[in-house]
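Colleagues,

For the teaching module next term, I've prepared a clean inverse folding example: a structure given as tokens, and then the sequence designed for it. I'd like students to try predicting residues themselves before seeing the answer, so please don't circulate the second half yet.
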């Protein structure tokens, strides 16, 4: 059997000594590539220790630095700006609304560009020195007071309020890929490819895992912030990782996921590494990246819950097109590259489900089937999905029968 990589065929029948030499050569190229990249990355070249000289300066106790976060008009990128508050807020309701130039974020025209930020959730800020400094997740509103097109949170909140008595829980598995500034997966040999997939998933070793320290820093920062952070693992493609948030009730998992994405990208800035949530960053025999959503209700988690799960899956089977449109920011165009019916994905055109089947649209974990209750995993959402849109679609189809 042979492996096709960028039009070149690498014979599997290489001798053992030739394979070993290739591995050492790739490792050397990787090390040289990383050293060259870090040396020439503007962010990584900065001396980070200089900031510590200022972090220890005493600031007024009644002043709080608040970093307002929002989703821009692309539906997949975070923007932010900071403001200083004159008192420590006791809750999100104490935070003032704010405005920004929506014409610079693909959300308004220059003639009427003021766009409003309304704070919805707040977190401890792992990047600021003050113990009261905050990250503030906001949603966005146009000049007419209506949600901007990229504000999927408003509709999601309406749905969650209608089904609050059913206690919907969400757990989200966020996959992502690390790149250098030239767009090459981080740690991949220059001008070539690493060995085929197989040894990298949950792997250990310098030839299998890249940038673990960044991943662990992200986990610590998310826990500090107050995110329901559940864990991390190296993924199937080298330079690809996953972390999980939840399970959380209602909107919190979606809020947490957006804030955790921001924290990840901020930490990656310091390492001089680029984070991409593209669902298919590398063509060819490499796994894509998803954001699997694990969903349950009080009835699904209770005795006899398997029947409730199966009923919900039947409803999902009737709305494949609707959910595909909701599951990536480009209404299915990004997922077309990922959901191809192989490499642990289902077909974008056909709904399927199964027990412990990672090639299906919806998977019921083996443990859930054995217990007869629990949750199901929707494997269709892309890694760059808006979790508000995904959770909204799940609730409206499964619980509101829309």
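(Answer key — instructors only)
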């Amino acid at each position: 059997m042979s492996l096709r990589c960028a039009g070149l065929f690498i014979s599997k029948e290489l001798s053992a000594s030739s394979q070993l030499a290739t591995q050492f050569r790739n490792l050397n190229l990787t090390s040289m590539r990383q050293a060259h990249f870090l040396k020439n990355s503007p962010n990584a070249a900065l001396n980070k220790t200089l900031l510590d000289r200022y972090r220890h300066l005493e600031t007024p106790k009644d002043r709080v630095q608040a970093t307002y976060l929002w989703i821009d008009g692309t539906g997949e990128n975070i923007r932010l700006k900071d403001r200083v508050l004159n008192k420590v807020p006791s809750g999100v309701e104490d935070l003032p609304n704010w405005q920004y130039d929506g014409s610079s974020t693909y959300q308004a025209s220059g003639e009427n560009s003021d766009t409003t930020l309304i704070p919805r959730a707040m977190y401890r800020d792992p990047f600021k020195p003050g113990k009261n400094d905050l990250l503030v997740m906001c949603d966005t509103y146009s000049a007419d007071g209506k949600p901007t097109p990229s504000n999927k949170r408003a509709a999601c909140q309406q749905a969650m309020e209608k089904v609050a008595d059913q206690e919907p829980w969400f757990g989200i598995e966020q996959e992502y890929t690390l790149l250098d500034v030239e767009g090459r997966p981080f740690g991949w040999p220059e001008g070539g490819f690493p060995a085929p997939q197989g040894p990298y998933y949950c792997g250990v070793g310098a030839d299998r895992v890249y940038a673990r320290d960044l991943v662990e820093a992200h986990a610590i920062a998310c826990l500090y912030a107050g995110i329901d952070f559940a864990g991390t693992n190296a993924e199937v493609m080298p330079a690809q990782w996953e972390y999980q948030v939840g399970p959380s009730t209602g909107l919190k998992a979606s809020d947490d996921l957006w804030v955790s994405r921001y924290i990840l990208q901020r930490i990656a800035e310091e390492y001089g590494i680029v984070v991409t949530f593209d669902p298919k960053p590398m063509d060819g025999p490499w796994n894509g990246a998803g954001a699997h959503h694990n969903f349950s209700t009080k009835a699904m988690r209770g005795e006899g819950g398997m029947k409730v799960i199966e009923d919900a899956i039947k409803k999902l089977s009737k709305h494949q097109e609707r959910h595909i449109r909701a599951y990536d920011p480009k209404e299915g165009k990004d997922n077309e590259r990922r959901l191809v019916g192989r490499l642990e994905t289902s077909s974008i055109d056909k709904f399927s489900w199964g027990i412990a089947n990672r090639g299906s649209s919806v998977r019921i974990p083996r443990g859930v089937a054995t217990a007869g209750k629990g949750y199901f995993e929707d494997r269709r959402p892309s890694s760059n999905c808006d979790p508000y849109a995904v959770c909204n679609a799940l609730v409206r189809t499964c619980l509101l029968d829309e």
